[in-house]
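Minutes, project huddle
Topic: does the predicted pose make sense with pyridoxal-5'-phosphate bound?
PN asked that the exact inputs be recorded in the minutes so nobody has to dig through chat later. Recorded below.
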Amino acid sequence: MISCGKQRAELASWARGLEQSALQQMLIATSRPGIISFALGMPAVEFFPAEALAEATACVLSVNAGVLQYSPPLQSLKQHVRELMKRRGVNCREEQIFLTAGAQQGMSLLSRLLLEPCRSVITEELIYTGFQQVLEPFQPHVLTVSTDAETGMDVDAVERHLRGGARPGFIYSITDGHNPLSVRLHPSKRARLVELAEQYRVPIIEDDAYGFLCYENPLPPLRALSERWVFYVGSFSKILAPALRVGWLVVPEELILPLSVIKEATDIDAAPLSQRIVNAYLDTGQLPGQIDMLRTQYGLRRDVMMRALAENFPDAARWMKPDCGFFAWVELPPVVDVDELFRRAIEDEHVAFIPGHAFSVNKRQGGMSSIRLNFSHPTTTQIEEGIPRLARVLKSLLS
Ligand SMILES: Cc1ncc(COP(=O)(O)O)c(C=O)c1O
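Predicted holo structure (tokens), as shared on screen:
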């Protein structure tokens, strides 16, 4: 609430109930010094190409002071993005690329473009909380579907909603490296989901924040299957550095103009300097090597976490080996109170994670006996120390 003495400005109705999210509260609790944290979903600082980015920055700033001016989206960066999309198995044109301040802004702009107040959307029950925050101002009717641990989103349930007459503004899909569930959408479900989007003329917002970080058998994203009905969201946050705040959309060409008007209203043209730095870095040709290095290193951390879980967690716990992204999703026996596990893990063993229900769209309707563990940020040594500690608390709760 904004206050001035006893006077208070009247907030928009959707904003009146805003409070710190459960996730933010947990992140504060888990950021105490000495805690081994599997809670945050951040990239590892030690893998940022800091020197190369410093050189790119110096190179950009040495050109002339004009690089500090307001400026239109950088065309040469769009060319680089087009090449990058080819590596992801997607052919697109520069005219279909829209530069954003990260994936988060891309999804926010698309939601503003597609959602009327109270229009429905289709999402899974457990999704990235940042996207739930994007939806909040629109107060949409969220039609949720479940997620299979091995094959991803329940596409039959999506079909049931559409056949039943729902006409959502869009379907949200985290096709690869799902946050928080770490699953990837099965190839047959990819084809079916895109068919449904085309048949019912409902766009899919495909959040591909982790798509370049597949550890084995990368699959092309949904955008490779439909140019018209899949609106692709990409980002340099996980493959370069999140502080740059540079991402992109790949959308039908006619959406570029309305998106640019909405973006102008949002932040004029945020991050033109960052765009130039990313562009100068990409000019050096180092990104493919950087992505290969990240896949190797994060793949190693994932393997260390899988081994530590297998050696320490009780047999009743279940998890899949993630083939993409930053997270492991662990299902615990329903008798375990994950909130109690969270408290005791921090207090007794100084180790942190995020309880699964923090990602539930319908507040505690899913993830009640699951936890999300991040393996990108902790070192292999921290993983090897932290997982047995967490297992100790878990076993004491079970006994
Ligand atoms: C699934 C997912 N989408 C989008 C984002 C936001 O990415 P960006 O930093 O590019 O805005 C995140 C960040 O963690 C994420 O996990």
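Observations noted during the meeting:
- The mean pLDDT is 94.
- The chain has 13 helices and 17 strands.
No decisions taken; revisit at the next huddle.
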